[in-house]
Amino acid sequence: MDLVCRYIAGNFGNPEIASWTNGDYLRLSGILSRASEIQLSPSTLKRIFGKLKTTERYYPQKATRDGLARYAGFADWDDFVDKHPRPAKPGDAAATEAPGPLTKIPQPKAPHISWWPALILMAGACAIFAWQWLKHFDHPPERPAGAKLVCSNPVGDNPHSAVFRVQLPDRFRGDSSKFVIVFGDGERDLSISPGAVLTHYYEKPGRFYAKLLYDSQPVDTIPIYLKTNGWTATANSQLDTTRVYPLETPGFGAAGMSVTPKEVYATGVDTLHTFYVDFVNTQEWDATGDDIELTARLTTSRLRPGIRCSQVMITLYGEKSQHEMLLLKPGCVSWAYLVFSEKGIHGSRTDLSPVGTDLTSGGTVHLRVKDKHAWLTVNGKPLYDIAYNQPVGKLYGIRINFAGIGSIQQVSLKKPDGSMVFEDGSK
């Protein structure tokens, strides 16, 4: 765990973990939530990195370790462990020099030894290599065929308590303790035993893709759909990830659809720190996310306490997956990311400089998707295009999330033939 922390510190750009401030942990929390899709509070990160001392070394659950390893540049936690079978000792050079984003941990020079001990060490190394090879090539992790994630009420209003269980075939002979549910809304993953019932509280409207994992491998996915009656607005604070705060039902006015800092503060959100406002409209549309045109005229938040990058995230919910675009000012593109079905591009590992855009004075975001190929433009300027493989399927809603106070002037969805699917706001 100490080793992966040093890798993360190198990618984070500040290898001196001991000098990190509370602001560093806040920033890393945001980066990990976007780049690795794991939600870790600053206090949890402090336990992981040793800032908060505990009686025993804090060791997070597997899904969290997988996310940390991915940000460190590895496929998952098992991949990281396989490539580091012997952790560096505290006195080694590797323990004191933080690695860069693409560097390997240097190993200390071996002391002079006689040939008999050398032969013994070589034999041991060969045995370890053979065991690793057999483990990952001859015996890959079991994926229980026929195992399904079942939800008795996958569709509901907002909020919604979904009831889950695992359905196994009669021939299943695996380890039933290895099943975990990833709920898809950023909340903590939970283990589930076959035959048991697990209820999860979804507190925001949208479409979420709950996944069943077995031994950290995906087995099944089902969508959980929280419908709305038109637009809803919800606020939440970066410092309080356990609660959301519904706002009065918004509508389009002369200045578009927005909320005021006073309205956000009245719900209980501290507007002197980083906060977010979600505008969501979920409904079933007669269109597919694989052949659609989205146009959104909007204005992002101006500079205010806790808001520097003036970000906006636009999500199109599909039947099977989603399109998601996080746009920020040019200086903040390290945090930007684009997701089109199974393809994800993160600014921490890819140069997304072309995607950097300042919308504090307003602008038009346009997404065109045709035959599973997406083109993104802002104010008529091409920013990014990419092809993907897995179909998104039928559209089920849109979400526009602002850091701070933003406004939406107009939103529309059209089919490639020009027929209107959805339109709201001023023209």
Automatic annotation (TrEMBL):
Q: What is this protein called?
A: PKD domain-containing protein
Q: Please spell out the taxonomic lineage of the organism that makes this protein.
A: Bacteria, Pseudomonadati, Bacteroidota, Chitinophagia, Chitinophagales
Q: Which residues cross the membrane?
A: 113-134
Query: What domain of life is recorded for the organism?
Result: Bacteria
Q: Which UniProt keywords apply?
A: Membrane, Transmembrane, Transmembrane helix
